[in-house]
Amino acid sequence: MTLRPLFIGLLIPLLTIAVIHSAIGLSTAADPATRLAWAGALLSTGGFALLFATLFLRRSARTSRTLPLLTVATVAGSALALLGLARGGPLLPAFYAVGLGLLGSLLYTYWYSRLPKAATGIRTGQPLPRFDLLDAEGAHVSSAQLAGQPALWMFYRGNWCPLCMAQIKEVADRYRELAERGVQVLLISPQPAGHSRALAERFDVPMQFLVDPGNRGARALGLAAPEGVPLGMQALGYDTETVLPTVLLTDAAGTVLWVDQTDNYRIRPEPDTFFAVLDAHGLSAPGARADAAEPQPGSPGRTDR
Predict the structure, then answer these.
(1) In principle, which of 35, 97, 165, 255 could form an S-S bond with 44, CB 3.0–4.6 Å?
(2) DSSP bridge pairs for 246
């Protein structure tokens, strides 16, 4: 096993323990140095734990790249815990603040959040390589069968990924605009089919939730992420391998118009980007095309009465 799934799988429960212990320590501390040390530990670990809590509540599928507020909280908390230690306070709060809070947040921000760039065979201007999937009913469907109309393809890691869920919510909120352009939405994950069906029931819009069994489609496209699932999620039925979060647009012939493979799982493309690409390829909404075709006041070809 690589360090990435082990890191995130252990970090969250350890942070939870540290936050609870720090809160108890602060509430029961008898002297100023001890209170200062536990206050620093609570600020550092609590600030970090708050980030994870807010990820699951986010409506936006992106954060800042460097998380500056988290850095301020963990640095300040570590400074307080070390000051308390220097004044005779206990060592454990300093370990929580510096080890779990500050060091853990730096590793999360600058190492864990970053994703490798895949050697994918997807190229703009070229046909999308063929691969096979399962639909919501378990029937086999090939990518070629999904051609015939423009499509937004979103490869997401699974229901366990909060940024993936936020990204799907963003697309669902603007599904009508995509439908007006004749664009079908195809959401693909290697997670168990039951998880995808449960997710489909949460969104009352006609998006297609497709399953990539064994992650074979992702492998064929060069988008597989071996051991990309946090340690412990296997107990919920997830495999250890997942897919690199990727979005692409194809036209009715299956030609790739645009592809985005994020290099940071916390930063996904804005939905407006999709529409800009569609507009650039003549796939605007019918009303927008009519407005664009109609001569404007004072323009050649129009007589104002």
Answers:
(1) 97
(2) 155, 261
Strands 184-189 and 151-155, by their bridges, are parallel
Decide if pLDDT at 290 tops 60: no
pTM for this structure? 0.88
**% of the chain at pLDDT higher than 90:** 84
Q: What are phi and psi of 157, to 5 degrees?
A: -75, -40
CA pair distance 192, 300, nearest whole angstrom: 58
The 3-class secondary structure across the chain, one letter per residue, is CCHHHHHHHHHHHHHHHHHHHHHHHHHHCCCHHHHHHHHHHHHHHHHHHHHHHHHCCCCCCECCCCCHHHHHHHHHHHHHHHHHHHCCCCCHHHHHHHHHHHHHHHHHHHHHCECCCCCCCCCCCCECCCCEEECCCCCEEEHHHHCCCCEEEEECCCCCCHHHHHHHHHHHHCHHHHHHCCCEEEEEECCCHHHHHHHHHHCCCCCEEEECHHHHHHHHHCCEECCCCCCCHHHHCCCCCEECCEEEEECCCCEEEEEEECCECCECCCHHHHHHHHHHCCCCCHHHHHHHHCCCCCCCCCCCC
C-alpha neighbours within 13 Å on the C-beta side of residue 83:
11
Structural contact between residues 70 and 47, judged by C-beta atoms closer than 8 angstroms: yes
d(CA 249, CA 180): 15
The predicted-structure confidence for 220-278, as pLDDT tens digits, reads as follows: 999 999 989 999 999 999 999 999 999 999 999 999 999 999 999 999 999 999 999 99
Judged on CB neighbours under 10 Å (0-12, 13-18, 19+), 53 is: exposed
Residues 115, 224: contact at Cβ < 8 Å?
no
Residues constituting the chain: 305
